[in-house]
From TrEMBL:
Keyword Transport: yes
Domain ABC transporter: 6-241
Keywords for the protein's UniProt record, in alphabetical order: Amino-acid transport, ATP-binding, Cell membrane, Membrane, Nucleotide-binding, Transport
GO MF annotations in UniProt: ATP binding
One Pfam entry name: ABC_tran
Keyword Nucleotide-binding found: yes
Protein name: ABC transporter ATP-binding protein
Coiled-coil segments: none
CDD domains: ABC_TM1139_LivF_branched
Record family assignment: Belongs to the ABC transporter superfamily.
Amino acid sequence: MSEAVLDVRRLQVAYAGNRALDLAALAVAPGEVVGVVGANGAGKSTLVNAIAGWSRGAPRVTGEITLAGTRVDAWATHQRVRAGLVLVPEARVAFGSMSVDENLCAAFAALAEPGRRVYARDEVYALFPRLKERRNHLGSQLSGGERQMLGIGRALMMGPRVLLLDEPSIGLAPKMVSQVLETLRSLAGTGLAILLVEQNVRAAIEVVDRLLLLERGRKVLEGPAREVGEDPRIAEAYLGATAA
Ligand SMILES: Nc1ncnc2c1ncn2[C@@H]1O[C@H](COP(=O)(O)OP(=O)(O)OP(=O)(O)O)[C@@H](O)[C@H]1O
């Protein structure tokens, strides 16, 4: 496997003194899709938010986050985005009162550098023809799946090296879930590194290379998707997720 483009070590996050995450190590290589699963409150969102440098509230975050060989953990969110560490937030539209087209045009335009593909708006439309059909619709009028496509499209226009996604399948119809996840798989085929938080374990197993199970902020299992998928602890998490 090629060298990691995202390398996370000793990442600890606490909210008001309560430890929400304590992760010894996590690495994602170019072209790799790593899935993070776990029950509600396991620390999945906390993990991707801490890597992106974004948070609700004011958690205390310590640890090393290295992007393409450069430490970024002391950087502000926008600096990490400029460097290619881009979070697609959970089912939200950037600008609800702007059209799809305007939302895409408002994406910060990254400089092309080796290891980064900066998508043009029309390339996003080629990837998601549905968004092109809806180009003049307001962000607030989009369905859950269309919002997710718009979020991914905006992220691609920022020239990501690493794409972080927080539950892209949430609220989507099963067909749309597989469409979005398959698109992520094909993006990884172009060399993009993807870290994907997913409650839909069954769908995630279909597209990820490696799966990591978090419990109470700690990694309790990590391995190739198929192997880990057979572990009873994953089945429990999966059943927990479907019962919710
Ligand atoms: N802003 C915050 N302030 C205080 N505690 C928080 C905050 N955000 C998360 N937590 C706590 O940190 C822990 C991890 O939460 P997190 O949202 O990361 O879990 P999750 O695995 O993403 O859960 P879910 O699947 O429900 O989204 C939980 O105990 C949660 O209550």
